[in-house]
Structures
1.
Amino acid sequence: MRKEYGLKGTVRGKAVEHPNKTRITILLDSDIVAAFRARAENTGRGYQTAIN
């Protein structure tokens, strides 16, 4: 593995669009997120899916 990689001239790829989905940012209490993550771990689904 190289110590450094030359990224000059690179371009970031376009974000993938998801039909019927809207990207938002929300602030949740840490204990709420912890509870959803614990529930997601028990069910095998993602915590963001559980919040949704």
2.
Amino acid sequence: MAKMDILRLMAGFRKFRERHFETVAEDTYFGKLAGPQHPKTLIIGCSDSRVDPALITSAAPGEIFVVRNVANLVPPYEKGGGFHGVSAAIEFAVVNLQVENVIILGHRQCGGIRALMLNEGNVVPNGFVSQWVKIAEQAKVNVLKKHAGEDDEDLCRHGELESIRCSLTNLKTFPFVEDAIQKRGLTLMGIYFDLESGQLLECDSESDGFRNVEL
């Protein structure tokens, strides 16, 4: 079965190549994008296979710079660098690419947040996932304080929303992000995709809640 899946993906790549590369180069997406990239927006999304930022936004190649990780989390700024893939990608997008917007894209039915809130799922004790989702530990604390007694599904949904606020807070701890906000108006947004209903919610800093995105 796995081999059949790979063959299907390779057949898909063949169609992609025929569509975008086997014509006059300058008339294709990738012919036009052969030079440096100039995306305007960085999207920090989840690795979840159902939540593809490019698909959700109908973005063309070169339009968005995407970072995906378990539960779409942003760690707080740490001095000294080290092996910080998400932080490195944020730095590259903000400092090198000079993006104008950064979006944290959370979603319903997030397995990473469920592991954080309920300690459920096939998570290795003291493994990479369990350590990673601790980035949003404050979100869990806030949810349990505000929504104690609610059922598991509601707690997870609250956790998914609250973790977006947590990541927005962490984004502002990066000096180059704060500098870009002050000097060139970098915009930070928190967006929540409800894959059950197809709705988008936006984090509202004034009300400390989320509201429907009017499309």
